[in-house]
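Rotation project, supervised by the postdoc (A.L.). Task for the rotation student: set up a whole-complex structure prediction and record inputs and outputs verbatim in this book. Inputs entered:
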Amino acid sequence: MFRYYLKLGLLSIRRNPILSTLMVAAIATGIGACMTIVNIDYVMSGNPIPHRSDVLYHVQVDSWDPHEAAEEPDLPPVQVTYRDGTALLAAKKARRQVLSYRSSRVIQPEEAGQLPFEVSSRSTSADFFSMFDIPFLFGSGWDVDSDESLEYVVVINKEINERLFAGVNSVGRSIVMNGDHYRITGVLDMWDPTPKFYDVNNQSFGDAEEAYFPFSVSIANELSSDGNTNCWKPVDEGGFDAFLYSECIWMQFWVELHGADEKQDYMDFLNAYVETQKALGRFPRPMNNRLSNVMEWMDSQDVVADDVQVLLGLAVLFLVVCLLNTIGLLLAKIMRRSGDIALRRALGASRRAVFSQYIVEAGIIGFGGGVLGIAMTWLGLQGIKGLYGDFDFVTKLVTMDWLMIFAAIGLALISALGAAVYPTWRACGIQPASQLNTL
Amino acid sequence: MDIGPIWRALLRNKSSFLLIALQIAATMALMVNAIAIIQERSRLMARPSGIDEENIFYIDSSSFDKDLEYQAMVAEDLDLIRAFPGIVNAMLTNSFPLRDGGWSQALQTEPGEGIDGTGTAIYFADEHGIETFGVDLIAGRNFATTEIVWADPEGAPDWPESAIVTRAMAAEMYPDITPEQAVGKVAYIEQDQPVTIIGIVDRMQAPWKSWAGVERSMLVPMKRGQSFARYVIRAKPGYRDEVMPQLERLLAERDTGRIIDSPGTITEARRMAYLEDSAMIKLLVFIVSLLTAITSLGIVGLASFSVAKRTKQIGTRRALGATRPSILRHFQLENFLISSIGVVSGAILAVALNMWMVQTFDLTPIAWYIIPVSMLVLWMVGQLAVYGPARRASLVSPAIATRSV
Amino acid sequence: MLSMQNVSMVYRTETVETHALRDFSLEVGEGEFVSVTGPSGSGKTTFLNIAGLLEEFSSGTYKLDGKDTSSLGDTERSRLRNEKIGFIFQSFNLIPELDIFDNVDVPLRYRGFNAAERKERIERVIDMVGLGSRMKHLPSQLSGGQQQRVAIARALAGEPRFLLADEPTGNLDSEMAESVMQLLEEINAKGTTIIMVTHEPKLAGRAKRNIFVRDGRLSSVEPQLQVAVGG
Ligand SMILES: Nc1ncnc2c1ncn2[C@@H]1O[C@H](COP(=O)(O)OP(=O)(O)OP(=O)(O)O)[C@@H](O)[C@H]1O
Ligand SMILES: [Mg+2]
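Outputs recorded:
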C-alpha cells in the first residue's frame, strides 16, 4: 500500500510542479535560516572543555570601590588584582590554581634573514597546562619551581614551531624574545577552546595565545597586560611596582576543585582571606566572593552575542511563517481535491487510507524541504562567513558538526510532519457524501 | 462595495484564510522588529567621529631593543613624518576614535573621595593634536608647546594641568553653562589632581562606539611610552593611500630594533568597529526580503488555488452580469480583508515581540510610525501578489457557467 | 425582441473545427415561451450562450431589443446580461460558500441597487419560489429541486425581460420538474420572455412555440416527430 501512496503522492506533486517547488523551497529556507542561527548559537554557547568544565572554577573577590559595584547589579570585578592573585596562588588551597594575563612579545629569530615578529602570549603560572588539559606535541609545561625561581622558559604553539623550527622537536632549544633568551620546554598540539573560556573579557572567541611563559618572569620584566585593565582608585607614584600594588584588576585566576565540599572549603578560605585584607584596610565593600564553574562563568558573562539571540528569535519566527505557508498551500491543494477525496471515500477508502495517502504526500514534500534545508544551512553559514569574515574567529562559528546536521534533519522532519498533519486531518474529515450535493 | 458577502464567505472557509492572515501577521511582526533594529543600527553608524576620517591613518611601532632611547626615537620619527610630502601633521598618541580600546578616567567638579565623576576618554596629545585629528576648536585655545609633558611610562601618570574637552563632556559636567563659559573651569582627575579646561572641541568620539558616553573625550598635553609608539598621521586630501606604505617603509628602514605594524586607516577602523552592525543590517534586510517574497509567493499560490477552485462560480458571476473589473475587485477585496486581519494582528504581535526584545536585549522601542508603514507595505504586497491570480479570474469566460460540470 | 440573422459559431481547437451553429436565424418576440429541442451536440447550449451574451459568435448579426450586440465591449455586454437576462442552469450553479440570501443577492450587487432595495427584492423572489424560511441555508443544505428554485429566484431578482434556461429540469425528478415548470409558466404569464432548452418532449410541448435544432441549424422538420426519432 505504501508504494501505491508514494506513487499517488509523486503524481500529485508532479501535477503542480511550481506549487510543489514553492512548498519545498519554503520549508527549506525556513530550516536553513533557523539552523544557520541555531548552529552559531550552539557553537557560541558550546562547552569549550566538556570533561573538566565542572571542576574548573573562576574566582572573583570583591575588592572594588565602596561607592559603586564593579558590575551592576552588585557583582564583584571580573578579574583580580596582582596582589590578590599572587596571594591566592601562593596559598595553594585548591588542587591546582592558575594566575595568568595576556600580553604580546616580539620574537627575534636567530637565523639570518628572518625578520622579528610579534606573537600573542600568555604569562601564566605553571598549572595552566595540566589544569586546562592542553595537548602537547613535544615536551611539556614547566613546574612550579620554575615560576618561583624566575626561569626563562617558554611553551610555543605548533604554528610558531613550524615557523621557527620547521616543525621538528624543538624542546631544549632557545628563542630570543624582547632581547632575552628563553628555553623551550614544550610545543603545543592544536588547541583552540571555543569560546576562549579562561579569558572571556579579552575577545571571547579569539585564538589561544601563541607563546606561554612564567608570569613571574614577565612581572620581573615589567611586561604589562594587553587586555583590559580597570582601576577604581588612583595608582600611587612609583612606577611598575606601584601599579602591581594598586587596586587595578587585570589578571585571571582559576582553581580546580572536586565536589561540593572542596568548593565550600575554598569559599571559606576566600572569605577568610578577604577578612585579613579588610583588617589591612582593603576590600571596603561587603563580602561578595564568587566561584563559578566554566559554564556558569560563560553564562554570567553573556558570551553569546545579543545579536545572535535576537537573530535566533527572528529565525524561529521565520520558520513559523514558512511552515504556515506550506500548511496553507497543502490545505488549499487538498481542499481543491475534496471531490476526489469524497469520491474515494464513497468508493470504500477508509479514513485511515485517506490519512495515509496524504501524509505520505506531505511527507515527501517535507523530506525534500529538509534535505534542501540542510544545504541551505550550509549556504547560510557561508553567507555569515562572508558578512563577518573580517572577524577571524568567525570560521570557528560556521562549522557544522554531526549533531547539528542531525538536528537539521530532525527539525526538517518535525516541521514537515507538523505542516502535513493539519491539512491531512482536514482531508480525513471530508464526508463521502459531502461533495455529491453541491456539484 | 460588496464586503458583506465576501466577508461571510470567508468566515465559512476560516482555516485557509486564517493561515494566510497568520502568515502575514508573523511576517509583519518580524518586519517591524527588523526595521526597528535596522533603524537603530543605521543611526549608530551614522554618528560622525568628529575627526577627519578620510585622511587619517596610524602606524604602530614596537621596539624590542633594550637600550632604546624612546623619547629621541619619537622625536626623530615625528620630524621625519611631518617633513614627508603629502602630510598635514602627525603626533604620538595612545588611541583614536573607533579603535575600541583606549584609556578612560573620571573628572569631577569638586576634589575628594566618593564624589561622582564624569567618565571620559583620554587622548594623549601635543600642540599638533587639534590639527592632526582635524577637530574643530570652538572655544578657548590649543596647547602651548611648553605645556607638553613626558609622563611616567609605567605607573600612573602625573596628570598635566590643562586639558581640552569635547562640547558633550563640558555639557555633561557643567549642564548650566555654555561651552565657552566652561573654558577656565578647574576639574579634578584621580580625585584631587586639578586640571584646567583651556579649550573645547566641537566633537571627538571616545574609542568605544558602544559606550553610552561615547561623545565625551579629553585631550591631555602628554606623551607617554617606553617601547610602543602609536603615531596618528593626517595626510593631505587624496594622499593617504599613497604615503601610508611609503611611511611604513621609511620607519621600518630607519631602525631595525623594532617592528612596524602594517598601518591602518580610520576608514578601516570604522568598518571594523561597525562590522557587526552593518552585517546585522544586511542580514535583516535579507531576511525581511526573503520572508516578504515567501509570503507573497504563498499568497499567489493560495489565490491561484482559490481561483482554480472557483472557476465555475466565477463563470456564473460573469453570466449573472459581473464585469471583468468587478471580478478583479472581488479577489482584491477578499485579499484586502485577509491582509487586514493579518496586519492588525501583526501590529499587536509586533509590539509584543518588541516589548520582549526591549526587555531582554535593551533595544530601543520601535518608532510608532513603523507600524502603519509596515501595514501599508504588507497591504500593498498582498494586492500585488493577488493581482496575477485575480486577473486570471477576471478572464474566465462566462460560458463556463453552462459548459462545466 | 431578440433577433438572430445568419449567426454562425465555429469552435476551433488544434485539431478540429466544430461548426456549432450555421446560418442560424431566429426571432423571439416579447412575452414568448420558446422551447428548444434537438439531439445532443446539435448546438442548443451554444445558441443559448450567444443569446445570453455569454459567448461571442463568428459571423452574422444578433440584435437584442433592436441593439446590435456584435460591436459591444465586454463591460457593456456584462451590463446587458445583468439587466435584461436571467439565467437558469442545468446544474444550478449556486455559489457554495454563500447562503441563499447572498446567492440571490449576487446579480443585484452588480446592478448597483442600494441595500434596502436589494433586501426587498431578495425577500420577494425567495418567497415567490417558496423558500422564505430557508434564507440562511447554504446550497449544500438544500435538495436539488430547492436549489433550482433558488437559482430561478436569483434569475428573477433583477426583473429581467428574458429568462434563458438550459435544461432546468435535467437534474430533477419528474415531480420536482413539474413544480419548476409551473413556476416558469407563472413567470411567463407575468410577461417575461422565456427560452428553455430541454430534452423532455412533454415539457417542450407546454411551451407556446417549439423550435428544433439539428447540426447547428434550425430544422424545418416537425419537432415532435424528430424528437421521437432523435430520442
Ligand atoms: N468550447 C468548445 N470548444 C469546442 N467545441 C465545442 C465547445 N463547446 C461546444 N462545442 C461543440 O459544439 C457543438 C455544440 O455543442 P452544444 O453544447 O451547443 O450542444 P448541445 O446541443 O447543448 O448538446 P447537449 O444536448 O448534449 O447539451 C458540440 O459538437 C460540441 O462538442
Ligand atoms: Mg447543452
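Student's summary: Chain A has 16 helices and eleven strands.
Supervisor addendum: Chain A has a mean pLDDT of 86.
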